[in-house]
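Subject: Protein entry, chain in single-letter code together with its fold tokens

Category: Structural biology, sequence-to-fold work with a learned token vocabulary.

Notation: Tokens come from a learned vocabulary of local backbone shapes, not from coordinates.

Start of record: The labelled sequence and token lines come straight after this line.
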Amino acid sequence: MRTIAPWIALLFACTAARAAKTLDIYFVDVEGGQATLVVAPGGQSLLIDAGFTGNGGRDADRIARAAKAAGVKHLDALLVTHFHPDHSGGVPNVIERLPATTFLDHGPSVEAEGKYPEAYAAAIAKGQHRVLQAGETIMIKAMKITVVSAAGKTIRRPGDSNSHCAGLAPHPETEDDGEDAQSVGIVLEFGKFRFGDFADLTWNKQLALLCPDNRVGKLDLLLAPRHGGLAPQALWGLAPRVTIINNSAKIGAGPQAWKTTSGSPGLEDIWQLHFAGAGGKEANAPDSLIANVEEDGAGDYLKVSAMPDGSFTVFNARNKYTKTYGRGY
């Protein structure tokens, strides 16, 4: 396994420390895209994806609101998982509000003739830039981030047999031709706490990670792949205690995927950024665990605060409801 160059670790280490002892993860409502702000105990910050562009800067404003709550004024790193507009489109808007020191991605877009989108290319020209590869690790103080997928490749390390792979067949290979299959997927470890974000990995790439052996391991917290819209039963091998779905009222969290996601053995709760209109009450979390229950909500976020012993608390910014989960695996 390769480790990212020491200058990145030094970059994070140079950020001013703060008093908090928790690892904080803000799941920002960008209406069915992704924007996940990770803030280490020392104050180092990593934004995973930036939502959509346009909409009057809506998504960037929501990210900035979460950053203000976290005491973050600039981003140590901005990781773009892949170049679809719901993940990378908001980068120019975000860096106007929160300058980023380093940009991380999987390399040029396979949907743009092997080039970076123009607006993103202009953004990375203003900072440091690194292309990630599956198997690399990023060390941020007490936090370790392992890149489990990037540029269409997945880690090949040994894993435990995954009994939930039985009967799962690959989808047509053409599904893997676009940017979704290129997604950077990560596992973040903070002591015993483990969080997985596989962005929009396709069915086949998810199976490559999880079948016949689970090369990821068990997770305390999972961000549902593809906004909760694609959930092969192989994900049950991760045994997440809590799953968060970054859906909108109309994107992600479909009834069939909900059925699979909610059936995961050992799952304690699903939290959602939005009530999913297609599912009704039967295929949605209780309102207390949903950040935005109205289609045109205020864009409230969910916040996870994790301790090194594996315990963590989820906070709903809409209703101030919190729930704590004990030590994990």
